[in-house]
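Dear colleague,

As promised, here are the two records you asked about, laid out in our usual form so they can be pasted straight into your sheet.

NAME FIELD: protein one
SEQUENCE, THEN STRUCTURE:
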Amino acid sequence: MRIPIREQLALLILTSALIGLAVISVATWITNHAFVLDVRSTRLSLTASLKAAQLASNLDIMQTSVGFIASRVLVQSALQRYGQQSNNSDANWVRARSDMGSAVSGGGSIGQALLLQSKVFPKDDSGPNGPYSVLNTTSSTWNRTLELPLHNEDGSPVLLGDGDLGYPPALYPNLTYSSGQYNYTFNDARAEADGVLLTYDSPPLFLGPWPVNESFALVSLTVPIVNNTSAADVLGWLTVVMDARLVTQVMSSTEGLGNTGQTLIVGPADRSNRITAEAFGADSTGPRLVQYVLPPRSNSTTNRHAKDRGDGPDVPFNASSYPAITRALNQNPDQSDLSNSLISTHNEYDDAVSVGYAIPRVDMVDWVVLVEQAKSEVWEPINHLRDILIACIFGTAGFLAIIAWPLAHFAVQPIRRLREATIKSIEPPNSHPSRSSFESFGSPSPNSDLETRIENSAS
């Protein structure tokens, strides 16, 4: 079937324009797709890294505050008399008790304002009080004013500092005492709790956070009380209960989270907040159980993690169900950058998310900071770019389809006029029989073959 020249030209205009538009669109898509995703990925990774650094700094503040209390001279003197002379009289502890009360009741810096309660344990169980604490102190500001999520035998609520339960068992370790050889002439005191060995130079034992209510949580740090005049002479052990606001602030901060983002802190499903080699070693074949350090909070735009919300501590889950956690835990701890991101992944409920992750550089806890956003929000610029390109391609194709035929019609007019002029110029003179005469006798016109060739060539 012969296609007229006008339609051929219209198709040529349309095809040429669409090829050029397709090349530009593909190049724009590839370039901007990679660029936008890289920007989003970097943003998630950087936000997680900054929050992990903030958390590490806050934990260092808490450790420093506890370290100052452990160096109190009056407390150390009372422990020396207890250890060397078995002096457990009230007179031995009266000044130390007053000094410790001042320490945990002090204001001023944020580190001091966090201190709520403390217990001092002996260095071993050979003294008059055995393995139990020798000095208990509660801040005068918080004593019997903070209601704990516990109940006495009569059903009444337990207040902080009120009786045995007023010193929350969840935040105080059960110490098992031992000793080790420091040199040929001296054995240093040691203690173990929740699988963590405490020595004169070990990181603190961090217990908690322990939620008291929806907006308040407590943590505790246990450190050695080392003689100020000796680097390895442990006089006892100190456990301090603190306000966990420096941890919860990292989670509640909304900077860099967008509309659906939230900060999550994940740790091992172990009371000590430490990763055991058996569970997370390279040869481990069992499940890596982790849990949220604090329950994820809801917000007005997302209902993710609804199963964990509002019921206190979270139920442990396998780290493999959340790929970002596995990736974070598998990092080499000696590398300079412990942050990264997964732009397209899922959480433990198979919700499509984008996640930035980082590990705080602290020794007392093995936590992973996650900055999680709904995948739809992270990919919104990409989807917007896709919609723009599709609209441009189809809009341009439709516009060209409308104007290509009129353009081709006017463009072929000179060719059509030339054909008509050529046909007229080669017609035979009037003396010869006209085309109508030949047609009247049923014979073909002499010029019909020529006209056919001219029309074919024009087409």
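NAME FIELD: protein two
SEQUENCE, THEN STRUCTURE:
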Amino acid sequence: MILDKNDRTQYGIPYQGSKTKLVEKIAKFFPKADHFYDLFGGGFSVSHYMIKHRSKSFKTFHYNELRPGLCELIQDSIAGKYNYDVFKPKWISKERFDAEKETDIYIKIIWSFGNNGHGYLFGPENELYKKSMHQAVIFDEFDDVMKEKFGLDRWPNHLTILGKRLFLRRVIKNRKGELQQLERLQRLERLQRLHFTNKSYDEVDIKDNSVIYCDPPYQGTGDYGNSFSHKKFFDWASDQKNPVFISEYDIKDDRFYLLKTFSHRTSFSQSDNSKVIEKLYGNKVAYKIIRDALNSGKNSIGSN
């Protein structure tokens, strides 16, 4: 998949805390190596970007995610399970979401607000309208809401699923694009150089001559359902012989060096679209690589 300049946010799957808005800027700091490790892989956005745009910089790519089910969801997406030709997503009500979110990773992630795995995607005030739109777009079923509220009882001829969504783009905002992201991963070449693991970060076998990227639960925020020791993580990252790059809000530990500050907008709640500051840090090995590269006059660290 090659994205155009107006579609730079479609990496991986929808996921809370995804680095899809920042990955292009973050990846510029990664030097070339034999192996690339995405140890807190989450929604696959960083691994996806690296495979597509830095494929010549590494021999193998390693996606790791501890949270149950995510590896399978991403692998199923790559395998084509969510292609519209074979997958017609049924409407998931709030009742079904609450009942099945802990046993179905697709429902838990795709049908939760902000893809946080906790709260239902829609509020009670607009669930009825969203269901009507969903049934019309996916199954060509037009109920009274579509007919009376939107004046529609059929689509113009020969519209694709995307065409139907675009036809309703002024009223479909929250749902637009998420299932398309799952389908889009099918276009990702199933490289034998891509490896999946479902382990804790410190259980992954790190090979020599590697670059390690970590996007752990941020200090002072939710832990994505798992308890997490930042002290243990920072001790581990400091001891690594390979360069470790860490995304965080703030690290007050002099074993790590601030490499870059990023400002962007977040939308973790329906009412919040505020600007946040995230930072990229490096362990001593990473900092030395960056410093030496700058001293040598190189314009960039890694390239495709």
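A couple of things worth noting about protein two: Strands lie at 35-38, 60-64, 194-197, 210-214, 244-248, 257-265, 275-282. The CA atoms of residues 182 and 281 lie 30 Å apart.

Best,
R.
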